[in-house]
Specification:
The chain is 31% helix and 19% strand. By secondary structure, it is an alpha+beta fold. It has two domains: 118 residues, N-terminal domain of MutM-like DNA repair proteins, CATH 3.20.190.10; 142 residues, Helicase, Ruva Protein, domain 3, CATH 1.10.8. The strands form three sheets. The protein has a four-stranded antiparallel β-sheet with strand order 1-6-7-5. It has a four-stranded antiparallel β-sheet with strand order 2-3-4-8, with helices on both faces. It is globular and about 60 Å long. Bound molecules: zinc ion. Zinc ion binds next to loops. Pfam families: Fapy_DNA_glyco, H2TH, zf-FPG_IleRS. It is an enzyme of class 4 (lyase).
Amino acid sequence: MPEGHTIYRLAARHQAMFAGEKVLASSPQGRFAEGAALLSGAVLDRTEAYGKHLLHHYDGGQALHVHLGLYGKFADGDGEPPAPVGQVRLRLTTDLHWLDLRGPTACELLSPPEVEALQARLGADPLRADADPDEAYARIRRSPTPLFALLLDQSVVAGTGLIFVTETLFRAGLRPTTPGRELSPEGWRKIWADLVELMGTAVRTGQIDTVYDRHLPEAMGRSPRVDRHGGEVYVYRRAAQPCHVCGTEILRADLAGRNSYWCPTCQPTPRTRSGLKRKKR
Ligand SMILES: [Zn+2]
């Protein structure tokens, strides 16, 4: 599933293509025919990303809400659109540009109160200036749930996905299973600052890079990571490979129904970190 930075890039792209223009809407597949008919002819005022949700705000107050989910995809181009191929849920066109949406989890029209309700359900989005990290920490600090699951919970932090959460926990030296209530205020400040920085960089570059300069391939004399998403990471999808920092083999386990990855040396359990109950061998 795309992480928040991808939705921000799409919002900016759609704004550049369509803002201030009268947009014609259709649903070649038919599943959004009614919504497209209501939308068609409206002028796009602005676009907005909130977590993994994309909003197009049109004159008259209605908003188009899209959540791509696992399979949703946009395609766009200049000039005349091609004949629709596959299940095109929504097609937007102007004289200059076209945009197709296929396979989203959500594609619907929302009224202003419904937009507010959607945003009220979502947690603090590190990419938004109006985000409230204190509110997120208030949820985290009283929860026994593993940090890994809390940071993926879109009602706590919005826009984060597996890569950002996995890598931020590595950079904070925290094991994914660490209960939320064991996270100190300093620990949270570090995690939040990292999310703001890493996600902001990803919006600019279009890929997720989470390693410090000293751990880049050229600095370490190692081969770059081979992955279709690109980008250099510490632990995500690196099970059984050596940690870039300490050489220990990266581990993987199922946690909250998702794949979690960590370095057992760089991310000790709270117990071993405090040194109170370390077992003698
Ligand atoms: Zn390590």
